[in-house]
Write a structure and sequence with these properties.
Blueprint lengths: L7 E4 L9 H9 L12 H15 L5 E7 L2 H11 L7 E5 L2 H12 L4 E5 L8 H9 L5 E5 L1 E2 L4 E2 L2 H11 L2 E5 L16 E5 L12 E7 H7 L11 H9 L9 H16 L2 H22 L16 E5 L6 H10 L5 E4 L1 E2 L8 E5 L6 H14 L1
Parallel strand pairs: 1-12, 3-4, 3-5, 5-8, 8-9
Antiparallel strand pairs: 2-10, 6-7, 9-10, 11-14, 13-14
Helix pairs in contact: 1-9, 2-9, 5-6, 9-10, 10-12
The structure holds pyridoxal-5'-phosphate.
GO molecular function, one term: transaminase activity
Keywords: Aminotransferase, Pyridoxal phosphate, Transferase
EC number: 2.6.1.-
Length: about 375
């Protein structure tokens, strides 16, 4: 008997998916010659990764600071390092990650003004402006790419308000960096929480925070609040070619390989175009299948994925398990449930990572069988 070929697993999740071959090449070969993370061999890795990130994002007024961890680590580091203990923070939240910002700020004991909106609802810019104009807060935090609803918040507009009223704007750009075009220079954004695994297509071992240089200078005088995640201390060390703790050189090599791959494929604009081409196949395909895309008024859709209503008579678990176990043209697919408050109504399909467009055509065939 001839064994059936193992189907190719396509990740339609935003966390872990197939990566560029150059990144995989590091994973395959690094173990033959590990790099001790100190001394002269570490400095060029830190420099290339940090400068490569700033260059890819076209953001010379910012410093990239690398941390061991995933996106949430960067959230904790930015919230815990960029604010004084007594600064009043406006948290604009309309999704699961805005809830996380609120949770982390509350854990840190930050005085918070909570603008808690229904998931997906566009923040009211006039209300935000009124709070800033009345000097009720010193800083604002908001998510850019809302991964729970697959929508984009009006970041340029909120950035302009932060600039106008001289407030510190801290942004969760974890799902948007390297994919969504975002002009950081002159944007009014003081710091960005980032990641190296989502739009950059590396592993979730290292993460990044971007801090505008004038804020970094101010942070020298902000007492430390989050041990091991102090951004100013870490930046000082990394500028000197070191890291205050152990940092994984293999992960640095993977980030460098991912940055080189990004540059070779047209940078952020090129990646945005790739993701948009996937949207152009998938979204009309969903509609042909009778699925309804979750949309909110005046909220553009993210480029990395789509939230869809669970069709009547179907459950998420049933659809997900059939997609993951019944091969179509040699492929099986892993999809993602919605988060928290939305999980009984919506499910999500992301199209991140290194897959040919053909994989999404095949996915639509597989999806047709389960909806
Ligand atoms: C993924 C994500 C996070 C958190 O990332 P983890 O990888 O779970 O640490 C935070 N914010 C947004 C918008 C995200 O998409």
């Amino acid at each position: 008997m001839i064994a059936a070929e193992t189907p190719r697993v396509v990740s339609l999740t935003p966390a872990v998916f197939h990566l560029p071959d150059a990144v995989n090449q590091v994973s395959r070969t690094y173990g033959e010659s590990p790099i001790v993370p100190r001394g002269p061999r570490l400095r060029p890795l830190l420099d290339r990764a940090r400068h490569g990130i700033v260059e890819a994002l076209g953001a010379p007024s910012y410093e990239a600071i690398l941390l061991t961890g995933s996106g949430s680590t960067s959230m904790a580091a930015v919230l815990g390092s960029c604010l004084r203990r007594d600064e009043r923070l406006l948290v604009v939240r309309n999704g699961a990650y805005g809830d996380r910002i609120f949770e982390y700020a509350a854990t840190l004991g930050q005085p918070v003004v909570d603008m808690c909106l229904p998931y997906g609802e566009r923040p009211d810019l006039e209300k935000i402006e009124a709070i800033l104009a009345a000097d009720e807060v010193d800083a604002v935090a908001m998510v850019y790419g809302g991964t729970s609803t697959c929508t984009l918040n009006p970041l340029p507009e909120v950035g302009a308000l932060a600039r106008k009223y001289g407030k510190k704007l801290l942004v969760d750009g974890i799902s948007a960096l390297f994919v969504e075009p975002l002009a950081l220079e002159g944007s009014g954004i003081a710091a960005v929480m980032g990641s190296c695994n989502k739009g950059l297509h590396s592993h979730p071992n290292l993460t990044v925070a971007l801090v505008r240089k004038d804020l970094l200078a101010e942070m020298e005088r902000i007492p430390a609040r989050v041990p091991s995640l102090e951004l100013h201390k870490t930046w000082r060390a990394q500028q000197g070619g070191a890291h205050p703790y152990t940092i994984d050189p293999m992960s640095l090599c993977q980030v460098i390989a991912a940055l080189e791959h990004l540059a070779a494929t047209g940078g952020v604009a090129g990646r945005h175009a790739v993701y948009q081409a996937r949207c152009a196949i998938l979204r009309p395909g969903y509609e042909r299948l009778g699925l309804t895309i979750a949309r909110w008024e005046n909220m553009p859709l993210q480029s990395i994925g789509t939230a869809l209503h669970i069709p009547a008579g179907r459950t998420y678990d049933e659809m997900a398990s059939r997609l993951a176990s019944e091969p179509v043209d040699g492929h099986v697919f892993e999809i993602y449930a919605a988060q928290g408050k939305l999980s009984d109504r919506l499910f999500r399909i992301f199209h991140m990572g290194e897959y040919p467009l053909e994989a999404y055509e095949i996915f639509l065939k597989a999806l047709a069988r389960v909806v």
